[in-house]
Specification:
This protein is mostly helical. The chain is 74% helix and 0% strand. Helix 5 crosses helix 6, helix 5 (82-97) crosses helix 7 (109-140) and helix 6 packs across helix 7. 29% of the residues are buried.
Length: 196
């Protein structure tokens, strides 16, 4: 086992790819803990401690597990990779329904590039929709349980909410980009690694 691991790091190309993937995963985890602008991090942290010790810990622990702890903290990468996964599934299903998508799929590399572009556009739209929903829930005080009495948003004006939505949408686009970079220049499927 140790000799295989040592030989992996002795190969310069493989070592570079592994370190590249690890670097992007570290950046992803940093973005998952970095709060969006306008989020009262102290109130969120207090609420998270309340959740972990209270009776509603089960459902919120599950939400936290699926988002890597980012969603309930309203972090920059709170939306994560899910808009991309959803967009990929929708585009694949549309190839059966829309003849133009079926034709693009049969065109080979050029058609696949066009399908990937459509997936990216749909990802941005879904990320915008999801981040708007999350911020609306946080604004109304229904994202976190009723035991959390402190407001999680420091400013509830339209412009402040817009900034948070745009930050979370941009975060989802960056996560999508990280996944594509890992797939192109790293080892393995980038989206799967980020989900893991």
């Amino acid at each position: 086992m140790n000799s295989a691991l040592v030989s992996v790091f002795r190969t310069p190309d493989l070592r570079r790819k592994i370190l590249f993937v690890l670097g992007l995963i570290i950046l992803y985890r940093i973005g998952a803990t970095l709060p969006s602008p306008g989020v009262n991090y102290k109130a969120v942290h207090t609420c998270m401690n309340t959740i972990n010790s209270g009776s509603s810990a089960d459902i919120y622990s599950l939400i936290n597990m699926f988002s890597g702890g980012a969603l309930l903290q309203l972090s920059v990468f709170a939306i994560g990779i899910m808009p991309y996964i959803t967009a990929s599934i929708i585009v694949q299903l549309l190839t059966v329904v829309i003849p133009r998508f079926e034709q693009l799929r049969k065109e080979g590399q050029a058609g696949q590039a066009k399908m990937t572009q459509y997936t990216r556009y749909l990802t941005v739209a879904l990320a915008l929709l999801q981040s708007t929903g999350v911020v609306a829930l946080a604004d109304r005080g229904t994202l976190l349980p009723s035991e959390c009495t402190d407001p999680v948003l420091s400013d509830q004006g339209i412009f402040a909410l817009f900034i948070i939505v745009m930050t979370m949408t941009a975060g989802a686009c960056i996560v999508m980009w990280f996944g594509e970079l890992i797939t192109e220049r790293g080892i393995g499927n980038g989206m799967s690694l980020l989900i893991f």
